[in-house]
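Open question from group meeting: does this chain pack into something compact, or does most of it stay loose? Before anyone orders reagents, we agreed to write out a predicted structure and look at it together. Recording both the input and the output here so the notebook holds the full record.
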Amino acid sequence: MQDSNLPGTELLKTVLEPLLEDFEYWFGRSRNLLETEQLSFMSHQEQFDLLSRVKQAQAELNTAKMLFAATDKQVGIDMTTLAPWHQLVTECWNVAMRFHQEKEKA
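Structure tokens returned:
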């Protein structure tokens, strides 16, 4: 178990840095799926809209990562920013699971 008395910067680095990397990974995978597959259970517009939201989240994430790096990892990210990213990743996971289930049926 980690020491709860870590200085703020070290705590941010320990918690926030891997979280940002996770978002980057999952947004990248989601974008790849949405750009390379036609999802039979979504309309073209629904898929396009989800892809647009993933691209927007990636742009926001890149900005947050640059700010985090530029401040020598001394700035946090507000939950009002992180919560929608988490919801989007969850939505993308559900789409990916359904895609793989549909693929298995075929």
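Observations to bring back to the group:
The chain has three helices and no strands.
The chain has a mean pLDDT of 91.
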